[in-house]
């Protein structure tokens, strides 16, 4: 196993259990305690966790960004369930915006290509995946490329979106809460996400349970801007609170 894969699995473990010990990780990955401690030191330097005696706990910082390949490893089953629900909302002739993200990428993989669609995206991997499907026209947003995140952002992307209109936008988010709505760790992405919302008639958020009840550095959408939340797990209280604000909540069935 590569170190990057091990780091991604440690992050997923922490998201699920909130804490972990060096001994647990050493036994799970069949590597030495020294190797695990090296991983934890590196992850702490990136703000992904906080080291404590004998192990680590999940970082409470809001400014944490994880590279695309790391995020791909997190909650794969949940993302697949969410994507299977989301794809049923795409209709023949739709113009849709795909935000950059690992869950929206999973949604793109679910599209069979038997519908005539126009897809607008800032995600390089989504664009590459869909451009080979004959019935799908892909519009790739311009701008600077965010290294390690496989997406464009910035003034050029925002300007293009201002001149485009879409039926639906499928948004990715790092965090989701009643207090702050949708928020992201990367401030560079905020304006692009806001422009996507402004260009779409219907706003659909794809968010697995591990991101709910948390806030990240930069807010990009209030609750009153959202139409639908698709998730894999939601509490009764949260679902009721969101529905009272006019948001349709869909919980993907396992």
TrEMBL record:
Domain spans labelled HTH deoR-type: 3-58
GO molecular function: DNA-binding transcription factor activity
Entry keywords, A to Z: Transcription, Transcription regulation
Protein's name in the database: HTH deoR-type domain-containing protein
The organism of origin for this protein: SAR324 cluster bacterium
Lineage of the organism: Bacteria, Deltaproteobacteria, SAR324 cluster
């Amino acid at each position: 196993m590569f170190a990057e894969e091990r780091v991604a699995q440690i992050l997923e473990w922490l998201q699920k259990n909130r804490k972990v010990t060096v001994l647990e990780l050493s036994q799970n990955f069949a590597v030495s305690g020294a190797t695990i401690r090296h991983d934890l030191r590196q992850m702490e330097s990136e703000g992904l966790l906080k080291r404590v005696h004998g192990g680590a706990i999940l970082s409470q910082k809001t400014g944490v960004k994880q590279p695309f390949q790391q995020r791909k490893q997190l909650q794969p089953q949940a993302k697949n369930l969410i994507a299977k629900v989301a794809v049923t909302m795409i209709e023949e002739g739709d113009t849709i915006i795909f935000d950059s993200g690992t869950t929206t990428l999973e949604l793109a993989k679910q599209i069979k290509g038997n519908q005539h669609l126009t897809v607008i995206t800032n995600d390089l991997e989504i664009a590459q995946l869909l451009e080979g499907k004959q019935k799908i026209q892909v519009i790739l947003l311009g701008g600077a490329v965010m290294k390690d995140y496989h997406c464009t952002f910035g003034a050029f992307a925002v300007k293009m979106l201002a001149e485009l209109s879409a039926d639906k936008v499928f948004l990715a988010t790092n965090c989701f809460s009643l207090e702050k709505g949708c928020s992201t760790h990367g401030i560079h992405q905020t304006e692009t996400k806001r422009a996507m919302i402004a260009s779409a008639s219907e706003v659909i958020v794809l968010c697995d349970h591990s991101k709910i009840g948390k806030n990240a550095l930069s807010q990009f959408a209030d609750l009153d801007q959202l139409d639908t939340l698709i998730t894999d797990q939601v509490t009764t209280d949260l679902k009721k609170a969101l529905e009272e604000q006019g948001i349709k909540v869909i919980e993907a069935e396992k």
